[in-house]
Design goal:
This is YdbS-like PH domain-containing protein. It holds the Pfam family bPH_2. Keywords: Membrane, Transmembrane, Transmembrane helix. This protein folds into two domains: 157 residues, PH-domain like (Roll); 46 residues. The N terminus is likely disordered. It has 211 residues and is of the alpha+beta class. It is 49% helix and 21% strand. It contains six helices and seven strands; from the N terminus they run αβααββββαββαα. A hairpin with a 7-residue loop joins β6 and β7. The longest helix is centred in the last third of the chain and has 54 residues. Strands 1-2-3-4 form a four-stranded antiparallel sheet, with helices on one face. A three-stranded antiparallel sheet has the order 5-6-7.
């Protein structure tokens, strides 16, 4: 990943993974977190702008509270194997997509998001209909998209190298079998050429008898 992209992800509005409660996340052996965050802190501004004036008549309080709870209870994670999303206050809605299923990645930003540096990353899968997973209102969406693309490319390259090695091993194994078969055939031919034929054996035996 480029230094610029890393700097963008580490900018204002992102949340350090050490500050996140990721007890809901179960990683497989060899799987590691590459990036994690909540939505951008400024993504709650519209709710506050609308909710605070309305709180005078108690209508705005639920709006502000719901927006804040959604912000604090939403996590997005990118590992070296896939993408994770967790939402929910009273219950948890966890989604996971492996990189082997990702077909397309795109990001979008509203005018407010462009100004404050947040946006959404949309992920669609092969065989799926539309967007299967969305990282909403995250910091530096372009940098996160680049990170995901690089992780996918890295995985595909690793799988390609592994496939090539498997094919090469298979070819070498077949060549060893063929070589052994040829060697066995040559050994059999040499044995046949050195052994006396039946007629020669009879002639030799007759000569010995006459003597």
């Amino acid at each position: 990943m480029s230094d610029t992209a890393l700097q963008d992800i580490s900018g204002d509005g992102s949340t350090d993974s050490s500050d996140l409660d990721l007890d809901w996340l179960t990683l497989e052996d060899g799987e590691s977190i590459q990036w994690s965050s909540t939505p951008h802190k400024y993504s709650v501004l519209p709710a506050f702008i609308i909710g605070i004036p309305l709180s005078l008549v108690l209508i705005g309080i639920p709006i502000v509270a719901a927006s804040y709870l959604q912000y604090t209870n939403t996590n997005y994670v990118v590992t070296n194997r896939g993408l994770y999303s967790k939402r929910g206050v009273l219950s948890r809605d966890v989604q996971q997509i492996g990189f082997d299923k990702v077909q397309n990645i795109s990001y979008s930003q509203s005018a407010l998001g462009s100004y404050f540096g947040y946006g959404s990353v949309d992920v669609s899968t092969a065989g799926g209909s539309g967007i299967e997973l969305q990282f909403r209102s995250i910091p530096a969406p372009a940098a996160v998209q680049e990170l995901i693309a690089r992780e996918i490319d890295s995985r595909q390259q690793t799988e390609s190298d592994s496939t090539k090695e498997d094919v090469l091993d298979s070819i070498l194994a077949e060549l060893r079998v063929i070589r052994q078969a040829v060697a066995d055939d040559q050994s059999g031919s040499q044995a046949d050429s050195t052994a006396p034929s039946t007629d020669e054996a009879i002639h030799t035996d007759t000569s010995n008898t006459d003597e």
